[in-house]
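Inputs:
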Amino acid sequence: MIVGAAANHGYLRGIYLRLAGVIMLAVMAALAFNAFLSHRSFERSLAPEVARKVTAGGDSIRALVLKAVAHGVAFDELYGVEQKFDEVRSEMPEIASFALTDTTGAVRYQRLTTPPGAPEHFRSAEVLAALHANAPGPAAPRRIGNQVLVSLPVVAPEGPLGMLHIGVDVRFVDELLLEMTFDVLVVLVVSLFFTLELLHFMAGARLDAALRSLAETFSRGAEGRFATAPGRLPAPAFGSVIRLLESALERVNAGYAALACEVDAARRMPLNERPPGLEAAQSRLAALGERYRFGSTDAVGDAGQRQLAKIRAPLFVFILAEELTRPFLPAYAQELAVPIAVLPTQVVVGLPIALFMLIVALAQPGLGALCERVGQRRLMHWGAWVAGLGFVASAFAASVLDLLLWRSLCAAGYAAVFVAAQAYVLEHADAGSRAKGFALFVGAIMVATVCGPSIGGILADNIGVRPTFGVAAALALASLAAIRQLPDRGARAAPSPRRPGARDVLSLLANPRFLAVTAFAAVPAKILLTGACFYLVPLYVLTLSGTQAMAGRILMTYAVVMVVVSPLAAGWALRRERMEWLVGGGLVLSGLGGVLLLGGGGLVWVFLSVGVVGIGQAMSISAQSALVSEVCAVEVARIGEGPAFGVYRLLERLGNALGPIAAALLAVWLGERSAFVALGAFVAACGLAFVLATRIGAVRSGAAAAST
Amino acid sequence: MDSTQRRMIAVAVAVCAFAVGMAGLLNYFKYRATTERLLEQRLATIGRSIANNIQSSLALGLQFADIGTLPAVMRRASDGDELITGIDVFDTGGLTLYSTAHARLAQPVPAAWRAAIARAGDLGWVAHGDAEPAVGIAVQNHFGLTVGHLALRYSPQVVARASRAVGRELAVAAVGVFAVTASLASLALVAVVRRLDRDVQTLEAALLAADPGRSPAASRRGPFRRMLRRFAATVRTAQTQIAEARSMMRRNPPRDGVST
């Protein structure tokens, strides 16, 4: 079965790669073709606008020339024309050339290089006719070489003096499209993740189930498990093949059953009538029964697996709604900030994020109980509605005070959906598939964190922050359609799992190793995430005259790094010692990521810094949960895994709430960049403290073991 | 596999719609922002020439509120560009001193303008929030002191008209690109899915053969060949052993016992 599963995995991955590759090629072609068509449109429509703009600049040159001529200076002997050209160009850098020609089209004054073919154009009958037509406005712009030439007649009351030609480099359109390169790349990356998500949602789960069913049937045949399962329904994708395989198995099973009947019937015959080889046949029958499995067996369906996969789509769409707001929420809060008692503005700006995280942390235990009472689907439904309402209201917020209220609704909805989705995975996954179920759960969240901030930033920059909240609301409400596809189990009949009490919390806190993992690793890691990445980065990037799209790209970098590095780190964290080094090393690295901003404060440094923070966090976070199981083995055995992890998660999430406030206070004192550095240094110090604590613990344990 | 093909086409359509839609949206907003920037720069250039005029008058010793030639200069500038709906000059307190619209004289300027000035300081400013947006610049005397501001009001409809026309053009282009690429992607995806179909058909052919394990043409191809061979070998062995047991029953036992 393992060989079959591995072969299937490879085969399915091959199909996925081919499908995703085909779609990516199509998307790249679409984006390239779209850019080409847009370039043509831009060039055609913007050239006249640029011509009008340079005409306004040209008017001041013309006025100067006319004033000088009016004062009796000859047109051929003007002084300072080139300097005036430079002055105008300093205001309009897209100007590529200036030429002032006389009535015959001969160049009298020039600055910069006119394009090849320009002298002929200046002397052309069309241009000279425009001069003598005595029209005040410019002649129609003409493209000569790589410049669009705007020609302005210079006409004194006594008659025409000449023509002012201003060349605009047509590559300004290329530059406009180049400015969009980052956004288009973001669209490409997000499209890739959307493709994989959609493939999984619309076809992958079915294909996966079908391939698993096929592999299971192959394995049964290869291992000689011929027992049939009445009522087994083959997966639709490979239905005909599986039926053929099943019928081959059934034929063998039926052959064995018929042989058994024959042997049994022969044994009932009088001794003299019994077939001569009965004993040999009986012995062969027994041997066959030992070697293979015949008869009937229960149908092992993969319905649970299919139901499990259904959670991914609503979770992804819902989390995407919240992630859209990451790059612009601090700036939005800053825009709506009002004085609150003695709180500095920076702290007020951090409050919406901190309150959101606090509600998510504190509401989860209560929502877990509610989930058991009302069922997962209903709680997810409520959560999506409440969050949708919160997003709509956030779009209309008048001040940070009501924004706090609306963000609380979003937080309550988020916590409800999160808890219900987690409960859904637990209910639909057995012990063997639980890890896969949680990988599905975490995968949906990670993909949403990659796609959400980048798209949210682009939308906020282009359509505005308030309409982007509207998009988030639409997504939250759209997740309702996917939530409706989930099975409704209603309230749980089973007794509710044990919740951690005060004694459990105290017993865990009395464990120095648990304390080391939470105080030195989990909480600082979350402080750095929410304080630096969610609060400081969006604000700091805006002060660098960056955009919200840039903040989104930086947050996307963090998420992409997490998606890539986390599985590698998780695969390496197999032994406790490795886990400890990964947690400690990851924390130190992520802290150094923050300290990296000492090297420079530009956007490249912010990208680098957040990237390094992401690598460190991926190393550390992947191993943290596994380490909790290791260091709390005694407590887990006594109070159960759920309560132990409940306490750990609660403390970790309180770190989430603490992050923006700590970052805001540091920003008041040090400024945003230095606050990032300070948070990084704090986390690096925590990482070192964690390594020291675990090494000292290991040495003591070793000494204790040696003495006994 | 019809259902899988339909789903693949839906994936291709959804992803292409997202990518082309986002690219179209970006193009449109980039165009609009660029057009607005160009218009604002154009107005700022016109405004600067008026401001230079005011500065020259101030240098001659005229009072800011008493420049007799200024209304004519403002009117000329306003008439010279169809985009401009009016020009106002106001003091640092926000009181209009000169205007191409008579009704605005001695009136306070809109709050949105004052807010934009407060944000910009002595730099140029743009007020979008008002029904009639404006581009403004600070008017400074020769000592660099700001004595007032000049605002060029413009019609947002001009920008909207230009954006709408290009928006339509970009939308048509995006729909065309989407239609072509979604169709191509769908066809390519169907081809990939057909390969999966072929693999399944190969497997089916091998199974339909009288003895799948010995059907060389069918079972030596495709990604499932190893699994099929192991399956067929076990099934064949079991069938042979059952047949042997059945025939054993009908014949005399061998003298040296039963061999399994």
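The longest helix of chain A spans residues 2-70. Flag for discussion at group meeting.
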